[in-house]
Design a protein that fits this description.
- About 9% of the residues have low confidence.
- Strands 1-2-3 form a three-stranded antiparallel beta sheet, with no helix packed on it.
- It starts with a helix and ends in a 33-residue tail after the last strand.
- The protein has twelve helices and five strands.
- The longest helix has 33 residues.
- The chain has two domains: 154 residues, no CATH class; 94 residues.
- It is mostly helical and 317 residues long.
- Strand 2 and strand 3 form a beta hairpin.
- The protein is flat.
């Protein structure tokens, strides 16, 4: 299977996980009882009421320790997750798991099929080839996605604060409380706005999880990156398939650390198709550049990316 197929599987699996966590009481906060539910159990501080009434040093120390272990420490681990992922895998989460990123890719795909380019605002040099543009099927599909996906997402995320069974019952009966109604409508508006108007600009400049991965991945000497085999630069056909495949507007042939790269592998797959399975791009963790054998200090392969007809746009240094 191709990298894209594997990536779609991981994206769908993670979206299902996001939907199932509150349904199965694996993780959610019940706003009605003000309790955090974790694996079907109420996550509390593990303290009895008597401890709060005691004034001794032992009781106070026990209370402080429990608050640290069961309230502060778990949040520290949660906050450290994305920096750690960034340090080890770069923005792999963004490209392979993030539900919002998957939604933006779906929006890109539909826009290409409807108007022939990714952006609603203007054409870009790296826009993919649209292929046959269907003026009926894809607009209808886009309207269905706009009607179903935001509402489903609103119900799923509201389920982290209101019992999913309660939400389903209210939706089925049409008798929605203010909290459920506000949650579904708010999330729906957010998803529609970002997927239609903002898309990957949010990933670049706004998303906190993406920014943490971006910064730690850029600084890390061992982070996973896409590198180019500089020893085979002359094999590049200048098809620009790698450029067109990148929905983050990265130019892979520059062969440098780009903080916007989400390690999706689309450029790897495009180059492999063009060169019959011997593509120039590979995942690596040596700083993003695969050096030719015997050249410890080889520099990036690309000094220019465009040129006269027939020019590969690549020159070695």
């Amino acid at each position: 299977m191709s990298l894209t197929v594997y990536r779609r599987i991981t994206q769908v699996a993670f979206i299902l996980l996001v939907f199932l966590l509150p349904v199965l009481d694996i993780f959610r906060y019940d706003a009605a009882s003000r309790e955090l539910i974790l694996f079907g159990q109420v996550w509390g501080l593990g303290l009895k009421d008597a401890f709060y009434a005691e004034q001794g040093l032992t009781a106070s120390s026990h209370v402080a320790l429990q608050i640290f272990l069961r309230a502060i420490l778990p949040w520290l681990f949660a906050l450290a997750l994305f920096p750690l992922l960034g340090f080890l895998t770069g923005r792999l989460f963004c490209g392979w798991l993030c539900p919002e990123g998957a939604l933006f890719e779906l929006s890109d795909w539909l826009t290409v099929k409807i108007i022939g380019r990714r952006s609603l605002y203007r054409s870009r040099p790296n826009d993919p080839e649209p292929g046959p543009v269907n003026r009926v099927v894809y607009p209808v599909l886009a309207l269905l996605c706009a009607a179903v996906i935001p509402v489903a997402g609103g119900m799923a995320l509201t389920g982290y604060f209101v019992a999913p069974r309660t939400i389903l019952h209210q939706v089925m009966t049409g008798d929605l409380t203010f909290g459920v109604k506000a949650g579904i409508i708010g999330v729906s508006i957010y998803m529609l706005t970002t997927s239609i108007l903002v898309r990957h600009a949010l990933c670049r400049y706004v998303c906190a999880a993406g920014l943490m991965q971006m910064l730690f991945g850029w600084a890390s000497p061992v982070s996973l990156r896409v590198g180019m085999d500089t020893s085979r630069v002359d094999e590049c056909t200048n098809c620009r398939g790698c450029d067109r495949a990148c929905f983050m507007n990265v130019t892979p042939r520059r062969n440098r650390r780009d903080i916007s790269c989400v390690n999706c592998g689309a450029c790897i797959e495009a180059c492999h198709r063009e060169l019959n399975g011997r593509g120039l791009f590979h995942f690596s963790s040596d700083g993003g550049i695969i050096r030719p054998a015997g050249e410890a200090g080889a520099k990036p392969a690309c000094s220019r990316l465009t040129g006269p007809a027939g020019d590969t746009g690549l020159t070695g240094h």
